[in-house]
Amino acid sequence: MNKNGLKPDTEYDPRATETTRERYQRNARFYDWMGSSMEKRHAPWREQLWRMIIGPSVLEVGVGTGRNMPYYPEGVEVTAIDLTPGMLDRAKARAQALGKPVQLNLGDVQRLNYADQTFDSVVATCVFCSVPNPVLGLQEIRRVLKPGGTVLLLEHMRSENPVVGKIMDWINPLIVRLMGANINRRTVENVRQSGLEIVQVEKLDGDGIFKRIIARRPMETTVQGLSQ
Question: Which of 193-198's residues contact partners 24+ apart within 8 Å by CB, and which partners?
Answer without folding.
Answer: 193/9, 193/135, 193/138, 194/135, 194/138, 194/139, 194/141, 194/142, 195/139, 195/142, 196/138, 196/141, 196/142, 196/151
